[in-house]
Amino acid sequence: MSTLITNIAELMTQDAEHRVLNDAAVVIEGERISWIGPAAAAPAADDAVDAGGRALLPGWVDSHTHLIFAGDRTAEFEARMAGESYSAGGIAVTTGATRSTNDFDLTRLALGRVAEAVSQGTTYLETKTGYGLDLENEARSARIASTVADEVTYLGAHLVPAGADADEYTDLVCGPMLAAVRPYVSWADVFCEEGAFNEGQSRRVLQACKDAGLGLRVHGNQLGEGPGVQLAVEFGAASVDHVNYLSAADIEALAASWAGWQGTGVRGTVATCLPACDLSTRQPLAPGRELLDAGVPIALASNCNPGTSYTSSMAFCVTTAVLQMRLSVHEAVRAATFGGALALRREVGNDADGERAVGSVAVGHRADLHLLNAPSATHLAYRPGIPLTHAVWRAGVRAR
Ligand SMILES: [Zn+2]
User: Fold this and answer.
1) Max CA pair span of the chain
2) Mean per-residue pLDDT for 43-49?
3) Are 49 and 92 in the same domain?
4) Per the domain annotation, does 347 fall within a domain?
5) Which of 311, 327, 343 is the last residue in one of the domains?
């Protein structure tokens, strides 16, 4: 079964050459993209969709969400808007609600959030554990996450639960809890921040998870400068997320991690910016412009979670990155598509590989496509707050 999407006013491929094509067409065959080029030269297909002069982008790749939770934190949000500052401790409220919710309801809630994301153009999505914070509930969260998300990250090291000793809890995270979640996850993460896990504890978590064969990610430098970025680079993490407070040495370390990329394909550590979270916590926006100028690949992600960023809108993140972080539209869309794929190490993969690339439009890549109700991607920033998603294909299947 093949589908021709034609009459595309602007096709922003986000491919290796950063190509933007006008008057373009794309052919989907099964789950893959089988042809792209000028509309006038398009081959015949079983089915045809007239894009009506709209813009087509890769689907969003949301590389940082926390969707396995129950309850909400409206009261904490109101207090924050009234002037209270954010501290990591609010996570405990969600942990209580999550533990007391059964598997069926926790799954239903998570599926609803994924559907909300897909309806806005997200076609590939990571999510994390981290609201269980005991062996049974972290394992349960990981199992449920593996049924709703494309990529699952173990975040037992999200917060030290109330009443627990931090070092003893770290032992649990690195030992029996890791063994219990291992069948369901491919990534591990640690919240390396004052009030969460210190450098020594973070180091132990990263080492144990690396030894267990997991890819690594780090929540770092959100509330102040700290060791998160340096640890992420030292351990070869695929991404360090938040990155609000960076020293010159941090930016240098991130840039250095990509030194061999063009020649050898060895990837460094992506800096993942979470602008919706920064606005909701009234933190300074992450220095996305400075990171790009220093040669550091960045990703934009929603950080959808009930405490600090209760949105799955990648379009909102892109809009904010353009209006407030001084990214161009092309740079912001790239960070929210190819950049997210790079942060999940899913940006390569073709017909010959086991897994197809996501986050860019190229022949052999997964057919994850987002048709905007606008003639160009510029409208994402030019018309802030307007829902512009017109159609979505996820792995070749029309999802909206
Ligand atoms: Zn997070």
Assistant:
1) 67
2) 97
3) no
4) no
5) 327
The verdict on residue 346 lying in a domain is no
Q: What does the alpha-carbon distance between residue 115 and residue 366 come to, in Å, rounded to a whole number?
A: 19
Domain of 147, CATH number, reads 3.20.20.140
Domain with residue 369: its CATH number is: 2.30.40.10
Residues 67 and 17 in one domain: no
Q: Report pLDDT for 101.
A: 98
What distance in angstroms lies between residue 192's CA and the mean position of ligand 1's atoms? Answer: 11
- 146 and 284 both lie in a single domain: yes
Predicted TM-score (pTM) of this structure: 0.97
The per-residue pLDDT for range 94-118, each reduced to its tens digit, is 999 999 999 999 999 999 999 999 9
CA of 187 from ligand 1 middle (Å) equals 14
Show Cβ contacts of residue 53 under 8 Å, excluding neighbours closer than 6 positions. 7, 9, 375
Co-location of 292 and 376 in the same domain: no
CA of 64 to the centre of ligand 1 (A): 6
Q: How far apart (Å, rounded) are the C-alpha atoms in residues 43 and 56?
A: 18
In a domain, 212, yes or no: yes
Measured in Å, residue 219 CA sits from the centre of ligand 1 at 6
Residue 89 sits in which domain range? 60-327
One-letter identity of residue 18:
H
Q: How many CA atoms lie within 13 A of 317 on its CB side?
A: 39
Q: Please tell me the distance between residue 50's alpha carbon and the centre of ligand 1 in angstroms.
A: 39
Domain match, 101 and 200 both? yes
Q: What is the pLDDT of residue 354?
A: 81
Query: Of 304, 327, 350, which marks where a domain is finished?
Result: 327
For residues 156 and 96, membership in a common domain is answered with yes
